[in-house]
Amino acid sequence: MKIIKDIDPKEWAELLDLEREALKLHHMPPALATYQLLVGKDPLSPRLVYRDISHSWVRNAYIQALNCILRMSVPTEYQFYGEGGLYIRTISGTDKLPDISTPYSEYIYVGSAGNTGKGPVAGTGNAAESFGAWQLDSIIPHGTGAGKMSYGLTSYSFSWDPASRRFKAEYVRNLLNSSGNTITVTEVGMHMYAYVGNRIDSYLAIRDLLETAINVANGEQLQITYTIYGPQLPTS
Q1: What are the pLDDT digits (tens) for 125-134?
Q2: What is the pTM assigned to this prediction?
């Protein structure tokens, strides 16, 4: 097994220090996320591993969080997507006005087999990470033809750690390459479902550009795991 990249312990420690400082000042700490990529015929014995801290929560995720906190009725002058605006944008490019809701029953990151509209996704694009990103640069479609991978069901787990006083959610998905050729993965991300009004759509929440591209040979699987850490809760 070859480790292509691993989480920088110094950077992770700095993020935890930032969280502790926020708690001291009675501010809500940031939500943290990491991702892991495994490649091989069997993810239980992968030939390569790639791990990193996610650096790219995008505008949609921020606006969704603002909506939850402010429960806003957006004035006309802020009804657009982009700097100074409070719209979110679907992965197909349609701008939507809050109120945004994400019912628990929908498990917003848990995509069924073949559904690339929610859950972990992968792509072959090289665009720089951007706060304004609303889709992967070039998502790998579901399927078995050229340039496609078969997206499996997203599995998930949810836990509370009393030592760190935080909740953690983990989302895992296997993508099988049976296209007949090697596929080079350069980006990964998380799609979420959200209701705006009475319509449910897919939105990009996270997009991470890999420092080193990963080749997935025909017959191999790419396993993507995103772990989202809730903010540490105060003791009182």
Answers
A1: 999 999 999 9
A2: 0.93
Cα separations in angstroms, 123 against 31, 107, 149, 159? 24, 23, 10, 29
- CB neighbours of residue 204 within 10 Å: 24
Alpha helices in 97-179 (DSSP H): none
Q: Which residue has the tokens 């998502």?
A: 139
pLDDT 10s digits, 86-141 = 899 999 999 988 766 665 556 789 999 999 999 999 999 999 999 999 999 999 99
Do the Cβ atoms of 214 and 48 come closer than 8 Å?
yes
Domain ranges of the chain: 2-229
Mean pLDDT is lowest, of 38-47, 192-201, 217-226, for 192-201
Q: Compute the 3-state secondary structure of the chain and give helix, strand, coil in percent, each to the nearest 5.
A: 15, 40, 45
d(CA 81, CA 88): 6
| Token digits of residue 216 | 């997935």
**Which pair of structure tokens corresponds to residue 194?**
């959200």
CA distance 172 to 160: 18
pLDDT reported for residue 101: 67
Interior/surface letters 49-70, b for 16+ CB within 10 angstroms, e for the rest: bbbbebebbbbbbebbeebeee
Contacts of 13 (CB under 8 A, 6+ apart): none
Say how far apart CA 232 and CA 210 lie, in whole Å.
Answer: 28
What is the separation of C-alpha 56 from the centre of its chain, rounded to a whole number of angstroms?
9
Alpha carbons 3 and 191: distance in angstroms, whole number: 26
- Strand 166-176 to 221-229 pairing: antiparallel
Determine the Cα–Cα distance for residues 152 and 185; give it in Å rounded to an integer. Answer: 17
